[in-house]
Amino acid sequence: MKAVTIRTFGDPAGLEVVDLPEPEPGPGQVRVATEAIGVGGVDAVIRRGTLAGYGFRPGHLLGSEVAGSVTAVGEGVDPAWTGRRVWAFTGLSGGYAEHTVAAVDDVLPLPDGLTGVDAVALGGSGVVAHFALDRGRLRPGEAVLVRGAAGSIGITAVQLAARGGAGVVAVTTSSPERGARLRELGATHVLDRSGEGGPDAPAGYDVLVDVVGGPQLPSFFDRLNPNGRFVSVGVVGGQPPADFGMRLMEVFRRSLSFATFSSDTVPAPERQAVRSAQFADAARGDLRTVVHDVLPLEDAAAAHRAMDAGEVFGRVVLTP
Ligand SMILES: NC(=O)c1ccc[n+]([C@@H]2O[C@H](COP(=O)([O-])OP(=O)(O)OC[C@H]3O[C@@H](n4cnc5c(N)ncnc54)[C@H](OP(=O)(O)O)[C@@H]3O)[C@@H](O)[C@H]2O)c1
């Protein structure tokens, strides 16, 4: 089967189209013939080598989420799954391929009215957005800032916060055009990447959902209200500086909370319940998915170049 692996970390040119054997589903797994493959910010982070400390090696097969049809089931899995159209989470590898395997606990049937392309624009990221707001304990009327809102996590977080009755839904983004698109999704205030938003910008935020990380992360502690909750969900801008914990201690008297959140820590049934509800909302048009582009699998490097150039709004999807 055709697949895309990382030959060398760094530039997208290090991605390589290769031939691999079709994977066999192990116990508790299903095999999926892919029809849509999500290109997530996490793929770019792995490819750049930002997560080198986590043990990724050359030859790594990228891709976390796909949609397609179940073609085989492993030991212990109900054969009734065969033939179903599903969304599937493949972990931190395996998705950029014509066939992949996933644990049946991380597979969800697609509702009528939701395309595979839309499912991979929402499936993984929507859950992160939901639980980030939940862990931030966002209450109606409070002010939330979504930092790095133009990706698929942020796009869903903005919609959920607006729908949940937040008093302010501010976003950071890199251009007024992207800001205008985020306003259409529910943002009330648009800030630049450093968090500046001119005289009308809110004075502070109760909850900050951060997709970006990077060197500027600690400067956002100053933008939180007393008792503010910072929830870090991503590092698309790189790791924060080593002294960021000291910077938090320096504002000790404002009782801020800093939390990391990974959807890995949410039990699979809870993740699936949230995802299933979001898929139903999206199929009804109550939650919008934003697909930046759909490209052939062999053009994965072009998808990554677009991400590195900062052109992507929403999600790029590959088709085999
Ligand atoms: N916590 C979890 O369970 C979980 C699960 C999956 C993925 N993730 C993480 O989430 C991240 C990907 O999320 P995503 O796909 O929504 O993000 P994304 O699309 O890669 O990026 C979101 C936005 O961040 C802004 N941005 C990019 N680089 C920046 C920089 N250097 N400084 C400031 N802003 C920058 C860009 O918007 P503008 O140009 O408009 O500023 C970009 O559109 C990854 O770090 C991944 O590891 C976490």
From TrEMBL:
UniProt keywords, alphabetically: NADP
Domain Enoyl reductase (ER): 10-318
UniProt-listed Pfam families: ADH_N, ADH_zinc_N_2
SMART domains: PKS_ER
GO MF annotation: an example: oxidoreductase activity
InterPro entries in UniProt: ADH-like_N, ER, GroES-like_sf, NAD(P)-bd_dom_sf, Zinc-ADH_QOR/CCCR
SUPFAM superfamilies membership: GroES-like, NAD(P)-binding Rossmann-fold domains
Protein name per its UniProtKB record: Putative oxidoreductase
